[in-house]
Amino acid sequence: MTDLTRFTIASAREHLRKKDFTALELTDAHIAAMESNRHLNAFITETADLARERAKESDFRIKNGDALPLDGIPLGIKDLFCTEGVQTTAGSHILKGFRPNYESTVSQKLRDAGSVMLGKLNLDEFAMGSSNMTSYYGDVINPWKARGHSADLVPGGSSGGSAASVAAHLAMGATGTDTGGSIRQPAAFCGIVGVKPTYGRCSRWGVVAFASSLDQAGPMTRTVRDAAIMLNAMVGFDPKDSTSANLPMPDVEAALTKGVKGMKIGLPKEYRPAGLNAEVGMLWDKGAQWLRDAGAEVIEIDLPHTKYALPTYYIVAPAEASSNLARYDGVRYGLRVPGKSLDDMYAKTRAEGFGKEVKRRILIGTYVLSAGYYDAYYLKAQKVRALIAQDFEKAFGKVDAILTPTAPTAAFGLNDKIDDPVAMYLNDVFTVPASLAGIPGASVPAGLTAHGLPLGLQVLTKRWDEETLFRVCQVLEDSAKFPGLKGER
Question: pLDDT tens digit string along 203-250?
């Protein structure tokens, strides 16, 4: 039989409905791949038995002509999404053993669409990181290797387990979350598609919070069409999330064939700083030419406050994190380290339960919110954030979409930057502005470095315009003909 892990979501869906193979066979193939690739450390918790049960339910519906949109499709769920009865850790020791008695809205929507959950995917602790090296459960390994080298590379973060599992064909798709680039950057590092929809498109209810005004769920897949299929199932208004938008969502899968003829595409000059990696710059130029060839007009634009995005993000996000993570005290759930008093128990539990990067961000966040510093740092950062959003609003008065690199480099080696937090934070330099503005963005794999490592191009559009986002992404994918880790996808 053909290797069933090589199919895309779109093609597998067609074969399942034609009964060329069963959902159980498709699921078993991915379970086998998952089990034989544990060296990648992509999963924290595997749920093979649960996956087989759900696959059998899918086969029953397909047999009776009642197939759901994602029936029988094996997916991985980032371990930031609460899953009923299945351990949810957020990659942290402090939540070890936590089994929610409820399901996050996004994972429930995917389940209601018939998908099969293979397990919970590894991530940077509480989604804080750009390399997936801050997880309590160990480093995730990028399935790509530099040509002629055997050294392990990072998959990017925080959704590194999601990206690695999809790139290595362990799952057909995966959920990710993006706070400052945590879907798009690992997608670029692992040569897959990653989509961050407009803030408010996907419910945050049941997703362990990092920075509440920034966190947004999205799909990670091997093709643009697969991302559209997943996103269609994930979005929707949720009264349990006060930031959830009660707005209609266009069928983004149906928009994929519309092309970009007549569109205006902006290239922000601020995204080409002195010293930009030459291969990244060349790929950006190539992407712009692909869009010209498809009938779009490409113009240079200004986003003048871009240079302030990274410092603004690293004030706003830690401030919100310090507030959100105050709930982990060892009293109600997760890790508890006994102490001589209640305060002593709090201190010991948090000292043992939180990793170094999480502690660093809590301290930064608490500092910028403290009396005497709130106005100087946090309030000023919020004002700059508004200016960054205004830059995008003005730009989208001139263009339909913006094209940039996704990340400043290709994937780097394990431990290359771990001792320099500032160097690590710079990985998000191209993705953070869109997160601060709440606009949708996506990374599409578009080329390889001279060493054979994937590079991505980022597409940004105005708020609520995912349709244009997917149209541009599809043209880039068609033009790039990116081979993927295992050849044709």
Answer: 999 999 999 999 999 999 999 999 999 999 999 999 999 999 999 999
User: CA dihedral defined by 143, 76, 63, 231, rounded to 10 degrees?
Assistant: -100
Query: Of 275, 109, 195, whose CA–CA distance to 458 is shortest?
Result: 195
Tokens representing 65 are 């002509």
Which among 169, 162, 168 has a CA at the least distance from the CA of 26? 169
Tokens of 468: 């244009």
Q: What angle do CA 425, 428, 433 make, to 5 degrees?
A: 125
* Distance in angstroms (rounded) separating the CA atoms of residues 486 and 484: 6
For residue range 262-286, list pLDDT tens digits in order: 999 999 999 998 888 999 999 999 9
Per the annotation, the verdict on 182 as an active-site residue is yes
- The residue from 78, 109, 196, 462 that is catalytic is 78
Q: For this structure, is 158 an active site residue?
A: yes
- Catalytic member of 58, 107, 115, 158: 158
Catalytic residue among 135, 182, 244, 443: 182
β partners of residue 443: 194, 458
The structure's pTM equals: 0.96
CA nearest neighbour of 210 among 379, 78, 41: 78
